[in-house]
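Tokens in:
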């Protein structure tokens, strides 16, 4: 075994990620503003793929702005709007579709905690599903408004 093969790969992410799967069915409203060639800020629609307290992954259909700073307003189901400042960390393009990694540089402590709590509750739910526990969805779940898991429709959350 070589030294390279014996390395243990360690998770480098500092924050738990929250996948935003429902964005395919119900688009998440997210616009980021960047100065255009005319010097004005223009909104650019995006689809949120995943979210953490430290950043997000977006799909855009236009090339992302070449700007050092992005100002965004994040609107999620059941959560108040979150003004966020960030920067593009990486971009991958395929067939005119751009996958963008955004690192947050400005987000309130309250919003950072809100996102972190949602992501942790979502991961806890995945653990309960994997362990085949009888009660998967819990009333205190902070990710409930963003969840599209089939277990969500079980009796605990059915409307009366």
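Residues out:
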């Amino acid at each position: 075994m070589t030294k390279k093969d014996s390395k243990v790969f360690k998770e480098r992410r500092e924050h738990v990620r929250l996948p935003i799967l429902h964005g395919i069915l119900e688009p998440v409203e997210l616009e980021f503003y960047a100065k255009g060639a005319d010097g004005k800020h223009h909104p650019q629609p995006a689809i949120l793929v995943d979210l953490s307290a430290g950043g997000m992954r977006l799909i855009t259909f236009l090339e992302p702005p070449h700007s050092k700073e992005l100002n965004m307003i994040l609107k999620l189901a059941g959560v108040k709007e979150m003004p966020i400042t960030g920067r593009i960390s990486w971009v991958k393009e395929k067939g005119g579709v751009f996958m963008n990694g955004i690192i947050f540089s400005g987000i309130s402590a309250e919003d950072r905690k809100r996102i972190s709590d949602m992501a942790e509750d979502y991961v806890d739910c995945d653990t309960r599903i994997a362990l085949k526990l009888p009660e998967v969805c819990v009333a205190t779940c902070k990710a409930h408004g963003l969840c599209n898991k089939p277990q969500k429709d079980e009796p605990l959350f059915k409307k009366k």
